[in-house]
Amino acid sequence: MKKILLAQVIVILFLSIFIRSFVEIDAISAEATASNYQNPFEHLDVSNEGGFDINKVAIDVTPDTQALLDTAEDIADQKEYEKYIADNQWKIDRLRNYFAGRGSPLAAHAETFVNEANRLGMDYRLVPAISVIESGGCVNAYRPYNCWGWGGQEAARSFTGYDHSIKTVMNGIYQYYWAQGLTTPAAMQSKYCPPCTDWNVKVSYVMARM
Question: How confident is the model over 105-136, as pLDDT tens digits?
Fold first, then answer.
């Protein structure tokens, strides 16, 4: 994406310079013709016989040109950053609105889910969706702040807060499932919920609405 943005910006900037320079070149060409101007490149042999290799021609990057390239890259970086922020906020808003609609206390922690998912490279909806199936989004928590029954129903652990539980569970899901190639509810079901027959369908259903 950055390369595409950079290319677009460079094309626009060079077109503006080309149009301005074209007029100047046209005027110079007319003067050169009037004064029997000699082409300084006439001595170059561009035929195969002369061994001319365009790939070996050195191109000097002037300070102005380098400044132009640097500016184009800065613009591309800024546009990429702005797109990242917009996409991130869209995910946070979607998640927050979904949890709020269910009266879930996790609505206030939507940003934590998205930030952790970005850090780990996971689907931001996976762990939130599991919490909905397991506890209604922590409306009926197994233990304090444990929205997933993390640790097993018989030995579900307690957490010190929602952010603590979210980060712990997301790291656990990443380590024991995502990093092992189990990246979808269907792939996770036999390991996460062995006796279940439709757990994956329910989780996928919730994910599709987040």
Answer: 999 999 999 999 999 999 999 999 999 999 99
- Phi first, then psi, for residue 151 (nearest 5°) are 105, -5
Distance CA 122, CA 183 (A): 8
Cα four-point dihedral sign 27, 29, 30, 35: positive
Report whether 201 contacts 151 (CB < 8 A).
no
Give Rg (Cα) of the chain.
30
Instruction: Look at the chain and report how many structural domains it folds into.
Output: 2
Within a domain: residue 189?
A: yes
Residue 143 shares a structural domain with residue 75: no
Q: How far apart are CA 99 and CA 128, in angstroms?
A: 9
Closest C-alpha to 209, from 152, 133, 121, 117: 133
Task: Find the CATH number of the domain harbouring 125.
Answer: 1.10.530
pLDDT surpassing 70 at residue 86: yes
Question: Is residue 183 classed exposed, middle or buried when 0-12, 13-18 and 19+ CB atoms within 10 A define those classes?
Answer: middle
Note if the pTM is more than 0.70.
Answer: no
- What is the extent of the structural domain holding 78? 1-33+66-101
What are the structure tokens assigned to 6, written together?
């950079």
